[in-house]
Design goal:
Blueprint lengths: L7 H15 L12 E6 L2 E7 L8 H7 L9 E4 L13 H7 L4 E4 L11 H8 L3 E4 L3 H9 L1 H9 L3 E8 L18 H13 L2 E5 H7 L15 E5 L10 H4 L6 E6 L4 H9 L3 E5 L4 H14 L4 E6 L1 H9 L5 E6 L29 E7 L2 E7 L4
Parallel strand pairs: 3-4, 4-5, 6-11, 6-12, 7-8, 7-11, 8-9, 9-10
Antiparallel strand pairs: 1-2, 1-3, 12-14, 13-14
């Protein structure tokens, strides 16, 4: 898509389209979040968003909301309009049929069914099409990082989350970790769970904490799938995860070394067992992400523990890190850090974040580091 320079008015309407899209966070997967604004004679006559997977796309929602005839108007949309038949008809057809004169797009759709085809169809219909670059384009792309990565690689976006002390410890030398972060930080984690397709932990965390890994905050539209990385398929049938597998899906990633009796028992209890190949743990993570992506997982919150985080780091499969830092000092030579991995030999070899954000949450500090952009 050839970029163009937008006016201040164009930028304002695109910002509104992106803002509308963001209100559906956690509700649209496997579809992207999209917002649309229709302007005629300098006045907004319609707004819309893709509110939920299976419902009307943003462009059609905005057209239906129009207070006046949209013929001759400008459509501002946060993502390239679709041109293929899915659960809903192509948006390019609705745009052309409505007589829209101009379409301004904030970001491309990298999926094979799109990738600029929709814009070409609109131009063939005689509609003026403009795309943008700069901060607006970045904001629109960042809104849909899970969708974009999955479209390009078939794998989920991996978001690593951890809570640590000022000296970088996630547990005491005795293994106690509850609770390092404050209640408000833990509530934020539950909100993130509700926005992701899956939540993942290692078997050590599953055995020590016996977690449910559900999102326990108000307004949750769906629960994430729970994923346990467990090479030997040793997750107890009596665990909360297995006992709730028929209510909220559980997937267990194991190696070929796992006993048949263990995997059969888990499958009979309702767990989706994924046997992954690979000569080492990092290679099995690579295999697991392919399998998870094939099952429709576009985003995964990696909650630990340190060993699993280290494997993902060595496999170069962490796209974003969200780190809570609590105002405590744990100390202790045997206390665990956030990531257990071989690590780099030189500071210059360490992966560097593309961008960082900082937020105060009660007494905690939340650092968000984006390691890749898709």
């Amino acid at each position: 898509m050839a970029p163009t320079t937008v006016t201040e008015r164009d930028a304002r309407h695109l910002e509104r389209a992106i803002e509308l899209a963001a209100t559906a966070r956690g509700l649209t997967s496997p579809n992207p979040m999209v917002g649309a604004v229709i302007v005629k004679a300098g006045r907004v006559i319609g707004e819309g968003l893709h509110a939920r997977a299976g419902e009307a796309h943003a462009e059609r929602a905005a057209l239906e909301a129009c207070a006046d005839d949209p013929a001759g108007s400008t459509l501002y949309v946060s993502l390239e309009p679709c041109c293929h038949q899915g659960r809903t008809p192509p948006c390019t057809d609705a745009i052309a049929d409505a007589g829209i004169a101009r379409v301004v797009v904030a970001s491309d759709d990298p999926s094979p069914k799109a990738a600029g085809r929709g814009l070409g169809i609109l131009r063939d219909e005689g509609i003026e099409v403009e795309t943008v670059e700069g901060q607006l384009a970045v904001a629109a792309r960042l809104l849909n990082q899970p969708f974009r990565k999955h479209a390009r690689t078939g794998r989920p976006l991996v978001i690593f989350k951890s809570a640590m002390s000022l000296d970088g410890k996630v547990a005491t030398r005795a293994g106690d970790s509850q609770w390092i972060s404050c209640e408000a930080s833990r509530a934020r984690t539950h909100r993130w769970r509700s926005e992701c397709d899956a939540v993942a932990v290692g078997i050590h965390t599953a055995l020590i904490d016996d977690p449910l890994l559900t999102a326990r905050v108000e307004g949750v539209a769906r629960q994430p799938r729970r994923v346990v990385f467990d090479s030997e398929a040793s997750l107890p049938l009596t665990s909360q995860l297995v006992r709730s597998a028929h209510e909220v899906p559980v997937m267990l990633v194991c190696s070929r070394a796992a006993k048949r009796t263990s995997t059969d028992g888990l499958r009979n209890a309702g767990v989706d067992v994924i046997v992954c190949t690979g000569q080492n743990e990092a290679a099995r993570v690579d295999c697991a992400l392919e399998e998870l992506g094939g099952r429709g997982v576009q985003s995964m919150l990696l909650e630990g523990g340190p060993h699993l985080a280290g494997i993902f780091l060595e496999a170069d499969e962490i796209d974003e890190a969200r780190m809570f830092i609590a105002p405590i000092v744990v100390g202790g030579r045997g206390a665990k850090g956030a990531i257990e991995a071989e690590g780099v030999e030189l500071i210059g070899q360490a992966p560097r974040a593309l961008a960082t954000d900082f937020e105060r949450i009660d007494d905690d500090l939340l650092i968000t580091a984006r390691l890749r952009e898709w």
